[in-house]
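User: I'm curious what two different proteins look like when written out as structure tokens. Can you demonstrate?

Assistant: Sure. I'll show them one after the other, since each token string lines up with its own sequence. Here's the first protein:
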Amino acid sequence: MGARRKGREYALQMLYQADAAGTAIGEAAAQFWSDREAPIDVRRFAERLARGTWARREEIDLLLAQSLEHWRLERLAIVDRNILRMAVFEMLAEPETPPIVVIDEAIEVARRFGGEDSWQFVNGILDAVRKRLEGAAGVPGV
């Protein structure tokens, strides 16, 4: 498994912990790392994703809400909600990673941590968000 995939998985676990417990991301991150070792590049990437996602979750949630049909974000499984948030953050804040790669990575994380059909749901929602972002920017691949 690649370093970035592992970083995404760690970030998801921190986001899950913060969301489920209603704690600050800094507290969730400190608790998460208290019993884990990780290479510095994995740790930095995971922290950047988790903290950035958490800091921008209101903005991200608005984008997600525009692409959710017949669903309310707060009714989604915590894992799925945070996979979606993290991927949208990455699309917004990590321009060196193509959106299609972000979506593929989110699908793989959903296969590992989500429910049986999570990966399909994640794929559909993130593709809709990607199209919305591309349309807003007027540039493909945003």
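Here's a second, unrelated protein for contrast:
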Amino acid sequence: MIILRLDRVMADRKISLNELSEKVGVSNVNLSKLKTGKVSAVRFSTLNAICKALHCQPGDILEFIDDDTENDSPS
């Protein structure tokens, strides 16, 4: 499972949704969906613009969590 950590990076950088929206050129509504993780996909061009505006790496925003770890443990 991929978790979006945009809210955490924004808080670390002390940047508001409105300010990021202006810098990235993406609507507040779409950024808000990204921030809350209510999306199933993100364009590389959007991810590129967000990383540029926040001076971060994609890995700072996206986190992989193995949701099969319960199935991998010995019984």
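A detail about the second structure: The two ends are 23 Å apart (CA to CA).
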